Each structure stands twice: as structure tokens, then as C-alpha cells.
């Protein structure tokens, strides 16, 4: 009723904003889907770090770029963001609608 116990929403960006960031070299995508899902298609240049073994402390260095998490629809990337918050990692954003939204926007897919 008064918002007690509710978590703040995670920061989200849309597919076209992410595409622009990638083209500008300002972002690195970390895809938390499992290996078989990633192999079937992913955002070009994304790094696969499945949620099943996701550890914020072990994420690859992004070379100063903003790290954006991604999954199929947003649920697993939100779970990964929860882990980042617990670990006080400086990762706070995911792709709204996940890879499904990326494909629906007609953006490139790498296999």
C-alpha cells in the first residue's frame, strides 16, 4: 500500500538507444542467457555470461564502456542486476524487453 518492501525498478534502455551506444563504442552488452540460446542468435559483439554462473566480480573489463545486461525478455537480466546491486557492482542497466525487443526492432543479429 505504501511501497514498503517494493524494490526500485532497474534502469532500462530501449533497443535503438543501445544500438546507438554500441555504434558509438559507448557500451558493452553482457548477455545472461544460457549458451545454447546465445548461440542461436545474439546482439553483435555481446559477451555471454549465463545467469547460471553469473558473478558480478568476475565480469570482463568493459574498457571504460557502460555495461548493459541482456536476456530473452528482461527477467533474467533483472535478476543479474539484483546480484550486481548486492555486490555493489557499478552495473545498473538492462535492455528493456531483452533480445526479443532487439529482434522486433529489426536490429542486427549475430549467430
Explain the overall architecture.
By secondary structure, the chain is of the alpha/beta class. Helices cover 31% and strands 16% of the residues. It has helices at 15-23, 35-40, 75-86, 98-104; strands at 11-13, 27-31, 47-48, 66-70, 93-95. A five-stranded parallel β-sheet has the order 1-5-4-2-3. Helix 2 links the parallel strand 2 and strand 3 (47-48). The longest helix has 12 residues, at 75-86. It is globular and about 35 Å long. The chain starts with 10 loop residues before the first strand and ends in a 7-residue tail after the last helix. 31% of the residues are buried. The model has no long low-confidence stretch (mean pLDDT 93).
Which runs of at least 5 residues are low in confidence (pLDDT < 50)?
Answer: none
Mean pLDDT: 93
Following the backbone from N to C, one meets helices and strands in this order, namely EHEHEEHEH
Radius of gyration: 14 Å
Helix content: 25-40%
How far apart, in Å, are the first and last alpha carbons? 46 Å
> How would you describe the oligomerization state of the chains in this entry?
single chain
DSSP strand content: 15-25%
Can you summarize the main beta sheet? 5 strands, parallel
Number of helices: 4
Q: How many strand units?
A: 5
Instruction: Provide the structure class.
Output: alpha/beta
Lateral strand order in the biggest sheet = 1-5-4-2-3
CA-based shape? globular
Amino acid at each position: 500500500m505504501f511501497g514498503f518492501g517494493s524494490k526500485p525498478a532497474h534502469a532500462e534502455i530501449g533497443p535503438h538507444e543501445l544500438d546507438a551506444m554500441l555504434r558509438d563504442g559507448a557500451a558493452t552488452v553482457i548477455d545472461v542467457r544460457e549458451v545454447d540460446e546465445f548461440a542461436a542468435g545474439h546482439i553483435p559483439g555481446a559477451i555471454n555470461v549465463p545467469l547460471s554462473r553469473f558473478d558480478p566480480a568476475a565480469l570482463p573489463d568493459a574498457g571504460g564502456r557502460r555495461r548493459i545486461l541482456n536476456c530473452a525478455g528482461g527477467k533474467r537480466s533483472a535478476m543479474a542486476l539484483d546480484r550486481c546491486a548486492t555486490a555493489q557492482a557499478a552495473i545498473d542497466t538492462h535492455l528493456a524487453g531483452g533480445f526479443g525487443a532487439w529482434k522486433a526492432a529489426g536490429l542486427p543479429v549475430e549467430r
